[in-house]
Structures are given as C-alpha cells and as structure tokens.
Design goal:
The protein is built from 6 helices and 13 strands. It has about 240 residues and is α/β, with parallel strands linked by helices. It has 3 domains: about 90 residues, Nucleotidyltransferase, domain 5, CATH 3.30.420; about 40 residues, no CATH class; about 90 residues, Nucleotidyltransferase, domain 5 (2-Layer Sandwich), CATH 3.30.420.260. The strands form 3 sheets. A 5-stranded mixed β-sheet has the order 3-2-1-4-8.
C-alpha cells in the first residue's frame, strides 16, 4: 500500500492480487494530531485498509524540505540546514532521504505520529518525501530519452501546487516548489523560474508529471512553446496521479 499525505488530504493506493484500488479523502488539517485522528477514522471505516500489508510506503508531500549536497551533509546538522529554509518547532522531528543520482540529501519534516501508526500495520514501512520520489521518476524518464535538450524542465503538478526541476546539460540547475490558485499564478511562477535561469525556449523541453488538468495547461503553455511532453499517468487516481 502507498499513502500520499498532503495539504489536500490522504490518497491510498493498494496493490493486491494483480489488482489496484484507490481511496482518496479530501480534507485539510491544522496539526499532526488532528491528521492522525482523521486517519484512524478513515481506516476504521474501510476494512480493506485495516489489514496487514507486506509493505507500506508513506509519502510526505509538503514544502517543508531542503536539498543538501552530499559533500556538505552530516546527520547531526540536518536540522540546522532545514532551519535556514523554514521555521521549526523545538520538538519537531526532521528526516532525510538520499537521492543517489543527484548525490544529495533531501531533508524534510515528517509526520512522526503517522509513521508510528502505519508501522504497526507492517514490519516493512518505507517513508520518503515527494521530492525524493519526483527525482526518482525523473531519472526513469531521462534514462529513456535520447538527444536531450540543453535545458530539461520537469514539472510535478498537483491541484494547488507544483514542483519544478531544471537541468542544464545534464546538471541540476535549480529546484523549487510553488503554490498557486489559478492558471495565471501557475504560469507566473513557471516563467519566473525559466526567465531567472535564462533558459532558451528553442533549447528547452518541458516534461509534466501528475496533472489531471492537461487541457488548460497545454492551451496556455502552447502559446509560448511547443516543446511540451506529458508523462503518462501510472494510475487512474482522480486527485493524485502521482505516487
């Protein structure tokens, strides 16, 4: 079972006996305690979720993270790195994933109480941040590409936020995460990034993951560039096309 935790709610994806099932719950939460309480209610209401799983993958999707090059990273200083990006409560936990191809660590704030809860349902729990999963998916796509452009722009689009990764000549140029309310804000942040980095439209290719609003994005982006490619969805999730 894979669980995506974000500001929009919870999304469950279950693989069992060559079948895949999805359960999605839209909700907002103010703190981890309320989130855990709601999670417990959801699982109690659905017996299929309240069983033992061979493996559970818990993915945190939030903006509470920072990428640290491997040569500068030490576990004991992970919290200090993250404090340069965001505010942390004194007792707030910090976790980190290693991104192999990037040779960097992704430091982030996890929901420790959710991890403890789901660890009781399996002896095999994997926890990571959505940025880590995004870079892993980018690497899978890049391995299948030929004649790579000078600038590769990867977008991971959610209903109200998106992650952007830009490569120049196969080297990471920038990563960022923006929230937006409408297509105008989405375009503003995208073009803010590309113009700041001086990416050349004729030397760039945009690859888009995770959106269920392709028509609107394509109609607007195509006014500026034809170099757009949507990465095929891995599942039929209505809210989240990305695990």
């Amino acid at each position: 079972m894979s669980i995506l935790v974000s500001k929009y709610g919870l999304s469950f994806m279950i693989h069992k006996e060559n079948q895949t099932k999805f359960f999605e719950y839209q909700m907002s939460y103010n703190n981890p305690v309320l989130l855990l309480k709601k999670t417990e209610e959801i699982i109690a209401e659905r017996p299929v979720l309240n069983t033992h799983f061979d493996h559970i993958e818990l993915i945190h999707h939030n903006r509470l993270n920072a990428l640290i090059p491997q040569k500068f990273f030490k576990p004991e200083t992970a919290r200090e790195w993250l404090l340069q990006q965001i505010k942390l409560l004194p007792n707030e936990p910090v976790a980190y994933d290693f991104i192999d191809k990037l040779e960097a660590f992704n430091v982030y704030v996890p929901f420790q109480n959710l991890e403890n809860f789901f660890s009781k349902q399996t002896g095999n729990l994997t926890v990571k941040h959505s940025v880590t999963a995004f870079f892993n998916n980018i690497n899978q796509v890049k391995n299948q590409l030929q004649d790579l452009p000078v600038f590769e722009i990867f977008l991971n689009v959610f209903p109200k936020d998106f992650q952007i990764v830009v490569f120049k000549n196969e080297s990471l140029l920038a990563y960022n995460h923006f929230e937006y309310e409408n297509i105008e804000e989405f375009l503003y942040y995208l073009f803010f990034m590309t113009e700041t980095l001086d990416t050349k439209p004729h030397q760039s290719q945009i690859y888009i993951f995770g959106t269920n609003n392709k028509t609107e994005i394509l109609e607007n982006l195509s006014l500026f560039t034809d170099n757009i490619q949507f990465i095929p969805e891995k599942n039929n999730s209505k809210i989240f096309n990305y695990f």
